[in-house]
Design goal:
By secondary structure, the protein is mainly beta. It is about 0% helix and about 40% strand. It is elongated, with a radius of gyration of 25 Å.
Length: about 250
């Protein structure tokens, strides 16, 4: 049995783990007709399942080469919950993923939607990830990058790309119309850490006595012990060591 005693002082150090950011899932719409019901991802990390992109019930497919194209987008200045493109990021068993951003190259017709938002099912598609982006009123290809954070996700996440503020019901929009990947999910994947099942946190036999801490205390030399606790690995039955990655105090 291994016991570790922690003493908490008024000065706390912060630790962080760095992850290598990379493309973990991509879609490339080169050489498609544009009106397919769905398109599979062209690249996915070895720790992820293949994905596919499809449409919500409020929009319809519209043929346009090299673009996953759709029309009937909302004319309103707020999004319609049924007007979206959808794809899911799914980890394999025993794996997890993190996401730092999603980038999209897209094309709109002269009357297509001008504003785009990204949401996910973690909050039932209520909140924009990063922010909604409005692009110039032209037909030039646009690059949109949604920057946000998903960390150590162990279950599938579904993302929806919404388009709105269209200038006509026949106005079309979709990702594509470029060489290379048209939707890129950036982040990292890894194994889910093994979990120790016989570790306990407990109060020590003798706690640190209460004391007064000056509001002017701001150096290591002035640090004051305020309380302590024990972390005990009760044995080796689970075959896993006790690993401590962070301590949060409320």
């Amino acid at each position: 049995m291994k016991k570790t005693i922690f003493v908490i002082t008024t000065l706390i150090c912060l630790f962080s783990i760095n992850y290598v950011n990379a493309q973990i899932l991509t879609f490339d719409f080169n050489e498609i007709a544009g009106n397919e019901a769905s398109i599979s991802s062209n690249v996915n990390d070895a720790n992820l399942s293949s994905s596919s992109i499809s449409r919500g019930s409020g929009i319809s497919a519209s043929a346009k080469g090299n673009i996953f194209n759709s029309k009937n987008w909302s004319l309103n200045a707020t999004l319609d919950a049924n007007d979206y493109l959808e794809f899911t990021v799914t980890p394999l068993a025993g794996k997890m993923f993190s996401i730092t951003s999603i980038s999209m190259k897209s094309y709109r017709s002269s009357t297509g939607p001008k504003t785009y938002a990204l949401r996910y099912n973690a909050d039932s598609y209520v909140t924009d990830l990063d922010q909604a982006y409005t692009h110039p009123d032209n037909t030039s290809q646009q690059l949109t990058t949604f920057t946000f954070s998903v960390t150590d996700q162990t279950t599938a996440l579904t993302f929806r790309l919404y388009g709105y503020s269209a200038e006509g019901t026949s106005g079309a929009w979709g990702p594509g119309d470029s060489a290379g990947d048209d939707i890129t999910i950036n982040g990292s994947t890894s194994d889910i850490p093994a979990v120790d099942t016989d570790t306990e946190v407990s109060a020590p036999g003798t706690q640190i006595s209460g004391t007064t801490i000056s509001s002017l205390t701001d150096t290591d030399a002035e640090a004051v012990n305020v309380f302590k606790f024990d972390i005990t690995d009760s044995g080796t039955a689970d075959g896993e060591p006790t690993k401590i990655t962070n301590i949060r105090i409320k």
